[in-house]
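Incident review: delayed structure delivery

Summary: a single-chain prediction request sat in the queue longer than the usual turnaround. Root cause was a stuck worker, restarted by the on-call engineer. No data loss occurred. The affected request and its eventual output are reproduced below so the record is complete for anyone auditing the incident later.

Affected input:
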Amino acid sequence: MTLIKSISGIRGTIGGEPGNALTPVDIVKFVYAYCVKLRERRPKQQGERYRVVVGKDARISGEMVEQLVCGTLIACGVNVVKAGFASTPTTEMAVIFENADGGIILTASHNPKQWNALKLLNEKGEFLNAEEGAAILECADAEDFDFADVDSIGTIEEKDFTDRHIDAVLALEAVDADAVRKAGFKVVLDAVNSVGGIIMPRLLRRLGVECIEINCEPTGNFAHNPEPLPANLVQLSDAVVSNRADLGISVDPDVDRLALICEDGKPFGEEYTLVSVADYLLSRAVEKSAAEGKTVEESIAPYKLATASNLSSSRALRDVTEKHGGKYYASAVGEVNVTTKMKECGALIGGEGNGGVIYPALHYGRDAMVGVALFLTNLAYRKCSVSGLLGTYPSYTIAKNRIELSDKSLIDKILSEMKSIYAKEDINDIDGVKISFEADRKWVHLRRSNTEPIIRVYAEAPTQQAAEELAGEIIRMADSIIKA
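Output delivered after worker restart:
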């Protein structure tokens, strides 16, 4: 059994002893702490009630966790807006729609069915920052409980925000539903038997797209490993080819990650979901400014011709950004770090290389719905196949490895030595150590695990062989550092 407490929330396996898994005791403790810190973060007049949105994915433990979370919230005197089955971005937007004080999403994202989690949101529908998350963990550990009396218990109301989310996506200026309808696309959708099977077909129908559904019943019995990686999407790839579809779409259980399959059944590549959407929006911004006779920044205000992603995401986003005259920014790994960087630099678009598209014109959160709508709009305009579109982008491959250590103290030693050994290269140490070899258009990122004595080693290069060779060189260098 496992319980992982981090700044982004509480994640664990269901069943077992308190403190070692996501048990009812742990759920109550952390929701109580969330309420305590909510009051400190947003003081109200006496008698004013706090409102928190609660949404869940379709995993089997969802109803049990939902009842505990909602019960604890009202026991703390908080009114609950229960969104029921709702994607992570839908719950985030529901906080905005309801002008609520916060939100709690019940999802373990791409983890297998035995996992669940509490993802904690602020009043903007965004994840708490590191300081706020740490304060909740400290409060929970104190176990100093003081619940509301009978006259102060909160209330529960139920609302479905699915259609409001879709309406907001379709209302975006950059989404051209008419162009998508005229293109007459046929797609195959794999929603891994979670909430993507509810919202994604509705969005596609509204866009006039013929949608063939597989694994779209929200039962929580995942038909395959729920992480949308090529090895887990064989059924989808086969269905795209057999149905002669234009595209395959895969989302994870909470629908914040988007992976695509080309018409020939080959992966479009998770890293290229964001790259393709960014290419469309950057190109559109440049064309818009020329048509209006304004500078780009005047034309797209309050945003700038800039993009952002985390250090472990593909260099292709930087290449595409610079091709359009924009500037690329890198953040530490973690969605809240990416959104913070996006706000700092005024990014038009950003996200993560795991298929997470963040489009601030809608909201600051990874959102597969807006990713699909923007991608299909671009595809309709380009009038080419999905594989043809992929061929227009810089080609890179990422190799993912790890260094397992017997002692966590070795991590700092290895990272420090790597900085010295490769001092002549471009070094970024905001999150571990990233070494960029600019002349060869390749990089390697060494990053510590927060839970295990492990260094994750991600290497990217124009070919798989070059990426693997770079990772191998770094792993051998780490081994020599350990033995020194």
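Verification: The two ends are 36 Å apart (CA to CA).
Action items: add queue-age alerting; document worker restart procedure.
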